[in-house]
């Protein structure tokens, strides 16, 4: 039958006009597809955030920038009640806030898979190394994404789904590490992982980033991986952060609401918690801040603070014991090996005056950092409360 038909077709010549018509349709649809692809491609590019996939610089645990941001929580974990007879509302609030179960999002995870969507320049390279060592000690598998030329941290919905599917396919227990915005697995009806992250004083972080991308080894390493990358302008390399801010250089002007794709995206630590929405992109806005806070409260098991490694480790050990059991020991036993990772020796000091100028424009970023810090101390205090119930009750 088929052969018969084919034979018939061959014998009957198709009229010339039909051939021309078909050719015309083919050409125009190719053109249409080409334009459409180009449009999609440029839209995709707009969504991309150029994250230089370099690694983080490590700060020692004691390198506190206490002048930067004051916390009203006591790092010692002791709650001071100046007056025995405080009004009921305040007392009620205190007990409510220090409910260890309410503060434990690990319990709300559906699978024993740790998702560390690490923020760059917060010492996360060191935490990654810590996790790698813990994976051998505590028996879980360790996964991270590979170094990319242009790292995309804001993903289109389809890519979010692919990422969530991939992470959900890992066997339990596992850890997955990637520079990426908060990805809501529940939105895709996929089991929720255990979210963790680390934050850092946002102004210290932006200074660290500034010198990090100028460090010679950063370029040498990248050039080795991607030989065709152009070399940077020497004048750009020589520019220091202080004069960059004082001269109001484009690179060091931090303007509210500004959508600054590319390297500038590093200014916003909140982006990594806010999510992939375009509401998360403008710099220093209330909207992005609120979304970021909500994600932390609802989903993150622990958001550690670089400036307080000890509290971070204690909270991680107690709230996510399956993965972080023995973390403090591993960290301090091998701390010399850890602190050598990615330390930037090319970072000159920056005066408080210049830092204050920058802080004036980082208000929401600072608020978010303080929010995470307070939550971490709350989690620490909640541990103390359960351990010394009698003492606390007698206050
Ligand atoms: C801070 O923002 C103001 C405008 O709101 C701008 O004039 C100033 O240049 C910014 N300063 C820095 C250091 O980004
Ligand atoms: C994540 O998605 C779930 C389900 O759609 C929703 O209830 C939750 O509020 C989302 N979380 C955030 C931080 O948007
Ligand atoms: C952190 O903990 C280590 C080990 O327990 C200790 O030696 C160090 O003094 C602590 N650092 C701070 C700043 O408390
Ligand atoms: C938090 O929940 C996890 C998982 O259920 C549990 O292993 C851990 O002990 C809990 N931590 C605290 C401090 O309640």
UniProtKB/TrEMBL annotation:
It comes from Tetragonisca angustula. PANTHER family: HEPARAN SULFATE 2-O-SULFOTRANSFERASE, HEPARAN SULFATE 2-O-SULFOTRANSFERASE PIPE. One of its GO terms (molecular function) is sulfotransferase activity. GO terms for cellular component: Golgi membrane. Belongs to the sulfotransferase 3 family. This is Heparan sulfate 2-O-sulfotransferase pipe. Its main location: Golgi. Pfam families: Sulfotransfer_2. The chain crosses the membrane at residues 21-37. The keyword Hydrolase does not apply. Keywords: Glycoprotein, Golgi apparatus, Membrane, Signal-anchor, Transferase, Transmembrane, Transmembrane helix.
């Amino acid at each position: 039958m088929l052969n018969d038909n084919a034979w018939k077709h061959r014998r009957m010549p198709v009229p010339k006009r039909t051939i021309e018509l078909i050719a015309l349709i083919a050409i125009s649809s190719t053109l249409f597809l080409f334009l459409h692809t180009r449009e999609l491609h440029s839209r995709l590019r707009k969504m991309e955030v150029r994250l230089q996939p370099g690694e983080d610089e490590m700060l020692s645990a004691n390198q506190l920038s206490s002048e930067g941001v004051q916390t009203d929580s006591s790092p010692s974990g002791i709650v001071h009640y100046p007056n025995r007879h405080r009004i009921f509302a305040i007392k009620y609030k205190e007990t409510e806030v220090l409910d260890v179960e309410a503060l434990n999002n690990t319990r709300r995870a559906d699978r024993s898979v740790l998702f560390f969507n690490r923020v760059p320049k917060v010492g996360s390279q060191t935490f990654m190394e810590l996790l790698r060592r813990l994976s051998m000690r505590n028996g879980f598998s360790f996964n991270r994404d590979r170094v990319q030329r242009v790292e995309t941290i804001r993903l289109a919905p389809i890519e979010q789904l692919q990422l969530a599917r991939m992470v959900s396919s890992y066997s339990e227990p596992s850890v997955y590490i990637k520079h990426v915005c908060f990805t809501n697995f529940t939105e895709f009806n996929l089991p929720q992982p255990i979210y963790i992250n680390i934050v850092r004083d946002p102004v210290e972080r932006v200074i660290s980033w500034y010198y990090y991308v100028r460090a010679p080894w950063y370029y040498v390493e990248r050039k080795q991986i991607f030989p065709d990358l152009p070399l940077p302008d020497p004048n750009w390399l020589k520019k220091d952060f202080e004069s960059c801010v004082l001269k109001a250089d484009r690179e060091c002007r931090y303007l509210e609401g500004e959508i600054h794709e590319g390297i500038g995206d590093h200014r916003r630590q909140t982006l990594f918690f806010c999510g992939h929405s375009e509401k998360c992109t403008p710099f220093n806005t209330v909207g992005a801040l609120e979304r970021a806070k909500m994600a932390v409260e609802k989903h993150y098991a622990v958001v550690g603070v670089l400036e307080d490694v000890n509290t971070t480790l204690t909270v991680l050990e107690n709230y996510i014991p399956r993965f972080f059991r023995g973390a403090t020991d591993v960290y301090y036993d091998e701390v010399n090996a850890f602190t050598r990772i990615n330390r930037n020796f090319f970072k000159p000091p920056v005066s408080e005056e210049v830092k204050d100028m920058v802080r004036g424009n980082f208000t929401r970023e600072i608020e978010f950092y303080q929010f995470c810090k307070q939550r971490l101390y709350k989690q620490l205090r909640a541990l103390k409360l359960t351990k010394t119930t009698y003492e606390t009750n007698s206050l």
